[in-house]
Each structure stands twice: as C-alpha cells, then as structure tokens.
Specification:
Bound molecules: guanosine-5'-diphosphate
Number of strands: 17
CATH architecture of the largest domain: 3-Layer(aba) Sandwich
CATH topology of the largest domain: Rossmann fold
Oligomer: single chain
Helix content: 25-40%
Length: about 475
C-alpha cells in the first residue's frame, strides 16, 4: 500500500475532485476515508440541508481538493431535480468527478439520470461502487458496468477496500485536468463538450534545447496577425501567454519557462524530464519540436513517450527546414516518422522559425488535433462498425481454446478518446488484437493527432445484438 501524505492547509488553486451521488450511498463516509481524518473546510450554502465540505488530499505527490457535494436542495423539485442541481454545482467546479453508487441497493433511476448528466460533461468520471465490503459482493457489480463508464472501482468506505485504486485513478485522471478549468457560466456546464471546444486551447512546445522552440513561439507571438493581450482573467497563470490565431484562442503554456530555460544550458536529464512533464500536465495540445538536421534522437523518443503517456493531443514540428535542401526534407520527415513510429497518429508540420515557413501551420493543425481529441462517437454508431470489425477478424481463442467474446463498445471518455470494450475474458485479448481494434477505429474515424485508449472490461452477460467469437 502506498503512503499517503496529508496537508492541513486548504488551497483554492488546487483542482477539485467532487463526490456526487444520491443520499445514503456513502459519500460522506468515502470522503472521510479518502482524506483520512484531515480537517475539512466547511462552506455554508443557503438552502441546502448539509454543508459542502472540502479537504486537501495528497496521494503519491499529487494534490487536489476533495469536495463532498453536500446535501440536496429541497426547493429543487423532488429528488431528481435536487440531484440535478447538486450535480450541476459539482460539475461546475470539478476537474474530475466521482460518482458514488450503492451496490447493496443497486442502480436506481436517479443514479442513471445523474450518470447521464455526468457523461455529457466530457470531464473524467470515475465510478465508485460503494459498500462492496467483501469479494462476495463483487458479482453485483455487473449493473454498475452497464452505466457505460470505463473506470469502475469496487470500494468499501467503511472497510477501506479499493480506496487506493480509486485514488490512483483519480490522480491519473487529474493528469489531464491538473490545471483548474477556466471559469465559465454555470448554465453552460452541462454542455461541457461544446464549451470546451470554444475555450482557449492550451498549447505547449516541448523539445530538446536549441531545436528552435523559443524562436517559433516568438514568431507566432510576433506575427502581425497575432494579437497578444494580457487581459486579466484570460490567463490561467502569469507565465502563460494568450494569443489568437484566425479567430481561435490559444494559451501558450509556460512561455516564460521557455525563455528561462534558454538561459540555463546545463539541465540534468531528470530536471528537463520533470519540466516537460509539468508542461504536458497543463496542455491540451503538445507541439514536439525536432531539429530537421539532426532528426529524432533517443531524447526525442523519450519526450514522445511522455506525450503518449500523458494522453495529450500532439503534432510534430520539424524545424530549421531552411538548413536542409528541399529534396532532403521528405527524407527527414520519413526518418522522424520511422524513429517515432509509436506516435504515427501525430501529424507533421515542417517549419523554419527563421524564414517563417510553416509557422502558421502550427496553430492551424493544433486546432484540428484538439477537435479530434474532444470528439465523441455515439455508442450506436460505434457498435454498427464494431460488429463488422470483429466479424472480419475475430479475437483469437483464449487458453484451452476458450471462446473470447466481445460484446459491445462505448466511448467512455474524451480528451483523449477512450473506449470501453466489454468481453467475457479481458486477459485473453492480447496486445496485437487491441492494436487491431485501435487501428480499425482510426481507419474509420481518423482521430488524427490524438492518442486513443482502449480498456477491456469483464462482462458475463450478453448484450443485445452483439455476438462474436
Ligand atoms: P451519504 O448520504 O451519501 O453521505 O452517505 P453516508 O456516508 O452518510 O452513509 C450512508 C449510510 O451507509 C451510513 O449508514 C453508512 O454507515 C453506510 N455506509 C457507507 N459506506 C459504507 C460501506 O462501504 N459499507 C457499508 N456496509 N455501509 C456503508
Ligand atoms: P530552443 O532552445 O528550442 O528554444 O531554441 P531557440 O529558439 O533558442 O533556437 C536555438 C538556435 O537555433 C538559435 O540560434 C536560433 O536562432 C536557431 N534557430 C531556431 N529556429 C531556426 C530555424 O528555423 N532555422 C535556423 N537556421 N535556425 C534556427
């Protein structure tokens, strides 16, 4: 079991993780278990029967504020209305949502309604199936999976079962939302997908020293078409620079750090890796800048693996093209593609910060990959293709010739697009077959510039319409 450190201070700048759920599922018990007796800051909210509580949670070095969404607003019109208003408030402030369910009582229509609201937000949602006090209760989890979320955790708030896994997943999900979301109108929140796409795109430039990151940034910020403005409230952080490109708002992540790092030329590999990771945590889209003359090196491969791991949308920028002969460029691009083959999903842009060639392609392509990263494919549409994909090439049999069945697929998350495939035998579906599924999804839907995640989940029963093997 990992150690958990705790901070007594409250810090409003930390991202918020909200516990959501109907009364009596065990939200407050889980809150107490997750924060481990840490004193909570209680906020009064008029018209609610219970106060909202916050406490800072530290897990494996990551910090966030856990919120117990508190009581229901009795004026909101029945339990469904009350749940909706409570959920809206939680969604509004949270970077990650934990939907708490009671497996003893089972899934109720109120749970389903709340799940649907959460699904539409585009924010990471983890399901905590509570009151799984012992393994004997795990079979009743089937119902929970049917809600269609990939991340399901069997927990017991009273016994502490599964709580470490839930915290690990929370921290992993925060990786994508470590920066608090931009404030926006509460009424817009239920349509978070559309809203996210309308907000600024956080763009980070990463790459080895001297590949031309600062020069490219300066060129982008210095172009006449680009408006640099430092309006209060438009920056998340003083070192991020907002800019507009052809009507699209961007936020250049850590522009100051880029300039600062230029001044320091002896960074240990560990320090620069940490810096890159911090930058990735705050970005939506990453531009990996590579020097055209030197091509991709082991260091670039390492950065590319951080990007893949972080789940960010990405493009590769091959800079200093002015130093190569025109005929050489295609070869250079092909060589980089070969070296960084595992990032084949990322489009390539060829630039020269000196002549300005291709620099404008960076924000254009960044906006495109961002869109793919936020894209959601409806379940019915996915399953229509899934049937064909599986029929064309069924999964290989498991050990002992056991049939492997894939029942259905749902897209559980966006940013990055994450798919949940239900099967009778997750362990038997090996890497080559998973890759086949991902490649097929890419063939059909593109998702260019976005990594894809695929999670296989055990499911006993059959789903209507899906038969394979
Ligand atoms: P909330 O209204 O969602 O905040 O729920 P509470 O935390 O107040 O818990 C409601 C009831 O469920 C209480 O009687 C708890 O003791 C009980 N409870 C909470 N978590 C668990 C659990 O993991 N296992 C069992 N068996 N009971 C639990
Ligand atoms: P950073 O460390 O990645 O931020 O790289 P810099 O932007 O500081 O650039 C390092 C050096 O490469 C500087 O001397 C730049 O003038 C030069 N440089 C950057 N981009 C280009 C380019 O496209 N073509 C050429 N010829 N030189 C470049």
């Amino acid at each position: 079991m990992k150690r958990r450190g705790r901070r007594s201070s409250d810090d409003p700048s930390l991202p918020v993780v909200s516990l959501v759920g109907r009364p009596n599922v065990g939200k407050s018990s889980l809150f107490n278990r997750l924060v481990g007796g840490q004193p909570a800051l209680v906020e009064d909210e008029p018209g609610v029967t219970r106060d909202r509580r916050y406490a800072v949670c530290d897990w494996e070095g990551a910090r966030f504020r856990l919120a117990d969404t508190g009581g229901l607003d009795p004026s909101a019109g029945g339990i469904l209305g009350a749940m909706r208003s409570q959920t809206l408030r939680a969604v509004e402030e949270a970077a990650v949502l934990i939907l708490v369910l009671d497996v003893k009582e089972g899934i109720t229509p109120v749970d389903e309604a709340v799940a649907q609201v959460l699904r539409r937000t585009g924010k990471p949602v983890l399901l905590a199936a509570n009151k799984v006090d012992s393994a004997t209760r795990e079979p009743s989890m089937g119902e929970v999976f049917r809600l269609g979320f990939a991340q399901v955790f069997a927990v017991s708030a009273t016994h502490g079962r599964g709580v470490g896994d839930l915290l690990d997943a929370t921290v992993a999900a925060l990786g994508g939302a470590a920066t608090p979301a931009q404030p926006s109108e509460p009424g817009d929140q239920m349509d978070a997908e559309a809203e996210d796409e309308a907000g600024p795109i956080s763009l980070a430039f990463v790459g080895k020293p001297n590949v031309g990151k600062s020069s490219l940034v300066n060129r982008l910020l210095g172009e006449e078409r680009v408006l640099v403005h430092d309006q209060p409230g438009t920056t998340r952080d003083p070192i991020d620079t907002p800019f507009r490109w052809q009507g699209r708002e961007f936020l250049l992540v850590d522009t100051a750090g880029l300039r600062r790092r230029r001044a320091i030329d002896t960074l240990t590999e560990a320090v620069s890796a940490k810096m890159a990771r911090d930058q990735l945590a705050r970005a939506d889209v990453v531009a990996l800048v590579i020097d055209a003359q030197n091509g991709a090196t082991a260091e670039d491969a390492k950065l590319a693996s951080f990007i893949e791991e972080s789940g960010r949308a990405a493009l590769m920028v091959i800079n200093k093209s002015d130093l190569c002969r025109r005929a050489e460029i295609d070869q250079k691009v092909a060589a980089v593609r070969e070296e960084l083959g595992f990032m084949a999903w990322a489009p390539v842009v060829v630039t020269s910060a000196v002549t300005g060639r291709g620099a404008g392609e960076i924000p254009r392509v960044a906006a495109e990959v961002f869109e793919q990263w936020c894209r959601r494919v409806p379940t019915s549409e996915l399953n229509k293709h899934f049937e064909e994909i599986v029929t064309r090439r069924p999964p290989p049999a498991g050990p002992g010739g056991r049939y492997v069945r894939l029942y259905y697929i749902t897209q559980a998350q966006v940013r990055p697009p994450s798919f949940f495939v239900s099967t009778n035998y997750p362990a038997a579906v090996g890497f080559p077959y998973r890759r086949y599924l991902v490649n097929q999804l890419r063939d059909i839907y593109g998702f260019e510039g976005s990594p894809l995640r695929l999670v296989l989940r055990a499911h006993q029963g059959k789903k209507p319409g899906r038969k394979a093997g």
